[in-house]
Amino acid sequence: MADAIAYTDGASRGNPGPGALAFEIYLGDRLLLRQGKVIGTCTNNEAEYKAMIEALRNAWRLGLQELIVRSDSQLVINQMTGRWAIREPRLGALARAAREEASRLREVKYEAVPREHPRIREVDALCNRLLDEAGYRPAWLS
User: Fold this and answer.
1) Distance between CA atoms of 97 and 100, rounded to whole angstroms?
2) C-alpha to C-alpha distance for 114 and 96, rounded to whole angstroms
3) Residue 109 in contact with residue 68, Cβ under 8 Å?
4) Distance between CA 130 and CA 75 in Å, rounded?
5) For the chain, percent helix, then strand, then coil, each to nearest 5?
6) pLDDT tens-digit readout, 16-52
7) Is the pTM of this model over 0.70?
8) Of 62, 72, 67, which is closest to residue 6 (Cα–Cα)?
9) What torsion do the CA atoms of 81, 84, 21, 102 make, to the nearest 10 degrees?
10) CATH code for the structural domain at 4-141
11) Pick from 36, 26, 21: which is nearest to 3 by CA?
12) I want to staple 126 with a disulfide (CB 3.0 to 4.6 A). Which of 22, 31, 87, 109 is the partner?
């Protein structure tokens, strides 16, 4: 498998509440793409799935055929690998959308990494910066 890796993160303030997603795609040590956006009201798990979907879509747009997707969301990774059942219908729809995007690539692997991973910290910071800039302050600051 090529050494293309996507690091994804999603965040919501309120759960559900205003949400954001972010991802970075690397080929080896070279950053190919970093993106993030505010995505409206969602749960944290929905934001995590939407971040993965965007990373998969953009990996395909970049012409990548093989990708490792890394996330600190145990739920998303374990549902995408089939280790955990998907009981929430809205998450089921997002998992189907992620699988559809993944089907465009030759091979996709999913790996859980700790939230302390430096790349996960970067995408988490991007999510939070986007929410701050959009005026969605953390509850503890209100």
Assistant:
1) 5
2) 25
3) yes
4) 24
5) 40, 30, 25
6) 999 999 999 999 999 999 999 999 999 999 999 999 9
7) yes
8) 67
9) 30
10) 3.30.420.10
11) 26
12) 22
